[in-house]
Amino acid sequence: MNLNDYGATHEQPLANGLMLARIIATSHQQYTIVTDAGRYRAQIAGRLANQTVEAVDFPTVGDWVQVRLPENADDTATIERLNPRQTVFLRKTAGRRSDAQLVAANVDWLLLCMALDANFNLRRLERYLAVAAASGARAAIVLTKADKAADLAAQLAAVAEITSDQPVLVCDATTAAGLTELTAFMQPRVTYAFLGSSGVGKTTLINPLLGHGALLTAAVREHDAHGRHTTTSRQLLVLANGSVVIDTPGMRELGLLDANVDAAFDDVKALAARCRFSDCTHQQEPGCAVRAAVSAGELDKDRLESYLQLQTEQAQNSHLRGKARENAKIERMFGGKKQMKAMMKEARKKRR
Ligand SMILES: Nc1nc2c(ncn2[C@@H]2O[C@H](COP(=O)(O)OP(=O)(O)OP(=O)(O)O)[C@@H](O)[C@H]2O)c(=O)[nH]1
Ligand SMILES: [Zn+2]
Questions:
Q1: pTM for the full model?
Q2: Interface pTM (ipTM) of the complex?
Q3: Start and end of every CP-type G domain (predicted)?
């Protein structure tokens, strides 16, 4: 296999002496990369580490990077540059802080997985759609565990209500139903990321698509700051049909950080255009076309609530994230806020 099999399509200009590589696995800033010369372990160059401010500036699975190869193939390669990302998918880390966590980069299609069993939840799907809309990647919906569906027809109709033009695929791993459609949908050298809460059946879907009796390696479980188990391993694999897949195991919740809530609610957005006030919050203002649509039974009340809640969450988190990023920069440049103030005072004195 060469790098084209991993999706290297467009011309990527290289700096002198460096080679193009794609990151296929990470763990504690130890990377596994693939190049036209084979696989290597890799580390990021000190200079690159110094330019980074927060976690999202570090290379992640799916990234295209420029590397210096070691003379001995058993030695570690050095990642010298991070190529600009075509798409990026972030989520808020668990807990109250609004640190960004990179889920994957350069994904062409997000496959939003949701189980048709008791965990079926349209509000969660709306959340995933809002994040997908901001990522730059296209989205498709993969409904799993069709054998456990309470009312498949009604569930499909409800999904159609809240989606626009996203393809919807239905799978049942117990009979392998839907797997043919899924593999036919997935194209060679295109990158897909399976997203969905822990236990929706992502691994069960991917394993038969790997071929050659290969199995996804079990995710590494670690303790996070709250003593809970979290799965940290991400990996990029090439399936038997040639498509490139990023597995994102162990997601408990998908905190909004970089979302486009309006894009995922174009029906609400269209109604809002007819509200009397252009900055209507659709809570109690007179002449609200959105609430009127709810009263008339044209818009689901739960969907409006979901929209308002996601809007609030997104606004709060992006505000907090802006602050966190600013603080990280001050820390890097001055060593802290106190030091920065002292330096500014000093500079003012000199000017006088
Ligand atoms: N009844 C039924 N069970 C399924 C189906 N697909 C998966 N399961 C079961 O659901 C459980 C979770 O499946 P996984 O594939 O491990 O889920 P996952 O999404 O990879 O979970 P994480 O790795 O934690 O993110 C397993 O016990 C599977 O056997 C299905 O189509 N029908
Ligand atoms: Zn309104």
A1: 0.84
A2: 0.95
A3: 96-254
